[in-house]
Amino acid sequence: MGLLVTGTNATAPIVSASLQGIVYGFSTCTFAITIWVLALQKGIRVHYGMLIVACTLWGLSTIRMILDIYLTTHAFVAYMFSRPLGPEESLSSFNKPPQLLDNTIYGLQTLIGDAVVIYRCYIVWKSWVAVVFPLLCWGASLGSILYILNSSAKGQTGPQIILFYSLTLATNLSATPSINTFAALTELKGRQELHAKYRPIVRIRPNELSVTDADLLPSIMGPDGVPKRPCRRISGKKGAGAKEAKGRSLIGARNKDQHAEVRRVWNQAFTPTAVKGYEPAIARRAAQLVDELKGSLEKYGNTGRVDLAQWTSFFTFDIMGDIAGGFELMCNGDEHQLVQNLEKGLYLPALTQQIPWASDFLPYFPFLGQYMKALAQLGHKQATRRLNEGSVYDDLFYYLLNDPDAKGAQTPIPIVVSNSVSSIIAGSDIV
């Protein structure tokens, strides 16, 4: 087992003990909140079973924290110069009573926690069928920890601990989703009961209403409906230009008069005359799609498969490229993963649009908004390219860039980028 702890200073156990102390601090705070919820709130019946479990888990954590401090201190005091390997020899030994007690407490904590999860699963479903598999995994976890402790006592160590980790993970993965499913079904049933009692409009959260009458949708989402809430900026810029883009983009405009002003430019791009000008590009792309599908059938024959959803996505992407940007996905394939960036770039805004203040902080977290940033970069790249190349004919981008009523002034770049992204999403997103 000495191979698992490398270095004469035994860095891993020291780091482990330090992290354990941090986690213990959090668990103590959680324990205090649990006691307050379970025992100190007035008018709530005390659940003595859960109270005992909470006290037991915190007590075991405290004992293990004290034990680990003792083991680490003892290793560096008693073994520093008295043994060839120094502290590493003590920290690498798992067959001594203190180490066995430490591992026993760890296994007991895990088993109690898993048992609580299984109990919750049974309580919500009121059926033993829902907990059969978690119970089997829990029993196997109990057997595995007993086997590991017995092997450690005999000085036999190895990868057996992986078996215990796998079984406890299986226990949680089988029980927790079951609880979440029941909670979702219960919420739906609860909403139905509320609507049956209080009719079509019910407040379900401080800032949420549940509406079941379809006739009310125009009053909510129609031209004279409720104002838009703050929405995420996708302009690729920051500062004053970004605020201007957020207000003057089709999606970000919250003021009705402002939205009507922005919509006026878009309406000019979709008049019968303007749409007639898009027909050659659409007809050319449709013919290209037919040729590409024929080529795929000739290549693979009757035994091959063609992903029509992918080809349709490429087709619509290329059309929007012709009238608003410039792509060749049907010809070259999605080399730069444009479709993937489009789909994944909209995922984070969909989750965070209910938390407006979060949009100002999320871009600063590495990797969290990489697809959203890629989508903004795509819009900025397409807008910059079209600004440099100009328009061969009056396509959608021409109208978005040149407002006939602006007396020759071009639309600001952040607004062009935002509108470019909106046109790509609206025209090519078929999900």
TrEMBL record:
Pfam families xref list = p450 (PF00067)
| Protein family according to the UniProt entry | Belongs to the cytochrome P450 family.
Which Gene3D superfamilies does the entry mention?
A: Cytochrome P450
Pathway stated in the Swiss-Prot or TrEMBL entry: Secondary metabolite biosynthesis
Which UniProt keywords are given for this protein, alphabetically ordered?
A: Iron, Membrane, Metal-binding, Monooxygenase, Oxidoreductase, Transmembrane, Transmembrane helix
- GO molecular function, a single term: heme binding
Q: What is this protein called?
A: Cytochrome P450
Q: State the signal peptide span.
A: none
Output the superkingdom of the source species: Eukaryota
Query: Which residue spans traverse the membrane?
Result: 21-39, 46-67, 129-149, 161-185
Q: What are the names of the required cofactors?
A: heme
Q: Which SUPFAM superfamilies match?
A: Cytochrome P450
